[in-house]
Amino acid sequence: MKRYINFLALMVFLPMSYASDDDDDASSATLVEQEVIYACVKYDKKEGSLKKDSPLRYTEPFEDCKKNEVRVSWNTIGPEGPEGPEGFDPKLMATLQKILDPNRFYPDLKNDPDLFIALPEMAGFWAGEIKDGDRSDTTGMNINLISKYKPGYNQHTWFGFAVKPSADGSAWSESNAILDPSAHVWKHYGIDIRSHLRFEKGMWVSYEATPEFRAQHPTWDWRGYLISPLVTLLMNSLYDFMEFDSGKTKFCERLVVTIDSNYEFSFAGSICEYVE
Prior knowledge:
Number of strands: 17
Structural class: alpha+beta
Largest sheet: 6 strands, antiparallel
Oligomer: single chain
């Protein structure tokens, strides 16, 4: 007696492959064009079930299976689903991106889905972590980079970076937009940079601005109210300065971060060393 089994119940555990490595593109195209696809799969008579590790052997519609096989079939065209929404949801896309790429951190995914911070390119002993896109329970930082870490031995160098949405800064932008409809609504973020060397030295960080910047923005506390594109620019500039991709381990006892009137960042005055 021939056995016929609906394929839908088998998709969970059956590996898909063609009968041999010699199948050409034409046979693949034929399978795609068919409304119903037929195949044979090995059947364990003793157990009374399909063999889970058995690959599918695609066949012609009326081709018989072998004695130790059963036929399976499935439709290539299913019922039409409901009409979806117009366009795409950028917040949904950002969420999917976060799932697919855990090396990105989104500081405010709900309200600012275009802003993300990626781990730097790393070489040598550096390794990085983003804890579920949130702050680490241990360090309180979003981005954590560690060089030469070994449990139980405090011989490593740690570098951390945190980005937090600024509620009052964002509210200020939105209020300006109400007063001036042509104004751009920027989200604002506060930043925090920290580092230590073997728990013996901590990094002192100074956030500065050039006189020209101060003349343009006399009251702007840029560290606590940094707009989205400048957050990305700061991170890229910082990664370059720290040389995470060089294969060297760099530690700065003093880090001076300066913003200029062109909204670019420099690190002149920093005191750094390369750690063996």
